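User: Hi! I have a protein structure encoded as tokens and I'd like to know what sequence might fold into it. I'm fairly new to this, so please keep things simple.
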């Protein structure tokens, strides 16, 4: 099954977008090119085995005019985001853009550099720093600053520095309070599910091209190299706090619970430059990402943008962020930040107004309209987040998943529901006929709903599977939102071929090594296959010898609970380093390094009931 051309309905939709959107406004292209030191549009980054982890040149097709198979507004955004190279923000501040999903920013100090947000992978970060050094000279890294707790802003740290350099005090690692807890928990607790879904969201496994992946709105895609984490040495906890690194003063503004649970903005007086992390970029952002996350707070988000304008607006000449290109000029900066602020405040306030009139999440999302000032601002359009999904996220934040209708209180799960729908519609072949009629009429949303039921009754139904792939493809072609497009086209790709699994792995050994003992025990608790452990009734005392901490751990009814320094008898005493305990959880029961008093077979039994998860679980099929 091959990719199909755009249908007549999609071609008409694209033409309407070309006619009605302000494509004559070229200011973003001017700003995205401003300060270019050297282009790297064709850069390829390889890992130690010689395999590519990043290929900027795979997006060379974006230099052409927008085809009918891509929404022209998304094509424009991808053209802007795909500009790769070294850029001067102001003299002394440089960005490497287009080497990963995020930007890496380099601030020159008195004797070295401060690196802000070292991308996802060590390979990408090292290549970005090398590009800077090639054109600005070799300078030692004095500090790494993480704007927030998402992996595209810390994962590449081992391409910038080493654990030994940090331990020796040669490099400071600065992050907002709560960074480590959230960075680790997000990538471990639900990391397998998030990673699999992120494969759909970013389209990292899709072919690049006009009928494939063209970008993700926020950045092009994710690099696929080695991710790591170093524990911060300096935590920022208060707005107004200042820090001087290598002669450069930095003034911080806390912004927790916005785009990330732990996030901060900061200002450089020397350069009159403001970093807004990921809270003011050239797109409407997500309040709940398609890969999954905690629902974000648009009210708090808008508040912190208001506060940033108040604190920094009259002394800032340039604002830059962890994605996209900067904005220069005091008037332009305040206008940009104010529209971004109004965007999240409007979504919050008007969604609550609608649900207080009795609308469900779906009804509110379908009827929601932005005011013209926001609708016509390129940086407020939904390339990464979307109005439709953000409205639903706000409803979820306040009311949860249930819409109040008792008929939807206890629905059948997808496969059982699909069987009943298909039977009611007259069987599989008849349902495919109805879907084909919907497809021919341009109602791809209804066609997808019908074909979803077909595939969940019989995932091998050839006609249904083929039609479903074609339907998702048209939905992808018509999507202005990059992550929607990637989801639709990823579903089509897996219907036509093999499951591509999880292209980017986030649960690296260096990530797991930063788990606190409590987080480590929590991660075991959520992996226990409880029915297989119902018979277990055991108490053990685990002493982490390298941390001088001990926990009384019990397993009963398939539930693991623990208490530090808990009293009472224990059937098993285990003395172990945290590193060796990680190996134990990974299945290594027999190697040296375990000091066990009692029945050691209990450990083997515990390991046997741990469920590692499935990073290739089915999404578009049952």
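Assistant: Happy to help. Inverse folding works backwards from shape to sequence: for each of the 622 positions I chose a residue that suits the local structure. Here it is:
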């Amino acid at each position: 099954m091959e990719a199909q051309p755009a249908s007549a309905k999609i071609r008409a939709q694209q033409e309407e977008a070309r006619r009605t959107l302000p494509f004559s406004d070229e200011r973003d292209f001017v700003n995205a090119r401003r300060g270019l030191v050297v282009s790297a549009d064709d850069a390829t980054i390889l890992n130690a085995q010689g395999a590519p982890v990043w290929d900027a040149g795979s997006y060379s097709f974006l230099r052409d005019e927008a085809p009918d198979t891509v929404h022209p507004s998304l094509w424009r955004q991808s053209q802007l985001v795909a500009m790769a190279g070294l850029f001067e923000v102001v003299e002394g501040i440089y960005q490497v853009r287009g080497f990963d999903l995020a930007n890496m920013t380099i601030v020159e100090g008195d004797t070295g550099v401060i690196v802000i947000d070292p991308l996802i992978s060590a390979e990408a970060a090292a290549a970005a720093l090398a590009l800077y050094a090639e054109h600005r000279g070799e300078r030692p890294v004095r500090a790494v600053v993480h704007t927030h707790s998402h992996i595209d802003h810390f994962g590449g740290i081992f391409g910038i520095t080493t654990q030994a350099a940090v331990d020796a005090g040669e490099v400071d690692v600065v992050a907002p309070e709560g960074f480590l807890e959230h960075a680790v928990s997000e990538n471990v607790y639900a990391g397998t599910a998030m990673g699999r879904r992120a494969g759909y969201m970013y389209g990292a496994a899709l072919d690049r091209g006009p009928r494939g992946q063209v970008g993700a709105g926020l950045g092009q895609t994710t690099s696929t190299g080695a991710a790591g984490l170093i524990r911060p040495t300096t935590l920022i906890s208060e707005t107004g706090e200042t820090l001087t690194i290598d002669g450069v003063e930095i003034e911080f503004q806390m912004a927790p619970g916005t785009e990330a649970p732990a996030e901060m903005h900061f200002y450089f007086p020397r350069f009159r430059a403001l970093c807004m992390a990921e809270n003011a970029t050239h797109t409407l952002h997500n309040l709940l990402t398609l890969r999954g996350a905690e629902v974000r707070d648009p009210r708090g988000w808008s508040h912190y943008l208001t506060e940033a304008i108040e604190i920094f607006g009259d002394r800032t000449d340039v604002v830059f962020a962890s994605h996209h290109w900067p904005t220069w000029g005091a008037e332009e900066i305040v206008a940009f930040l104010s529209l971004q602020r109004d965007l999240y405040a409007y979504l919050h306030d008007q969604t609550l107004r609608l649900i207080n009139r009795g609308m469900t999440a779906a009804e509110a999302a379908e009827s929601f309209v932005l005011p013209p000032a926001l609708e016509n601002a390129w940086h407020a359009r939904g390339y990464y987040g979307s109005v439709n999904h953000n409205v639903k996220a706000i409803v979820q934040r306040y009311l949860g998943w249930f819409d109040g209708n008792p008929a939807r209180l206890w629905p059948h799960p997808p496969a059982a529901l699909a069987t009943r729908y298909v039977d009611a519609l007259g069987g599989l072949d008849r349902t495919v006929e109805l879907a084909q009629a919907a497809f021919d009429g341009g109602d791809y949303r209804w066609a997808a709903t019908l074909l979803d039921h077909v595939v969940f009754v019989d995932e091998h139904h050839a006609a249904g599977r083929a039609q479903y792939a074609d339907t998702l493809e048209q939905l992808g072609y018509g999507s202005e939102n990059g992550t929607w497009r990637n989801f639709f086209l990823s579903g089509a790709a897996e219907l036509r071929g093999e499951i591509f699994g999880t292209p980017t792995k986030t649960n690296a050994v260096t990530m797991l090594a930063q788990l606190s003992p409590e987080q480590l025990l929590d991660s075991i608790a959520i992996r226990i296959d409880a029915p297989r452990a119902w018979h277990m009734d055991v108490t053990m005392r685990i002493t982490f010898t390298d941390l001088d901490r001990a926990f009384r751990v019990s397993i009963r009814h398939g539930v693991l609970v623990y208490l530090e320094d808990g009293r009472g008898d224990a059937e098993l005493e285990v003395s172990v380093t945290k590193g060796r305990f990680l190996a134990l959880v990974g299945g290594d029961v027999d190697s040296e390094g375990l000091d066990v008093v009692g029945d050691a077979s209990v450990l083997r039994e515990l390991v046997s009931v741990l469920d590692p998860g499935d990073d290739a679980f089915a999404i578009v099929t049952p």
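A useful reference point when you look it over: The radius of gyration is 26 Å. Feel free to ask if any position seems puzzling.
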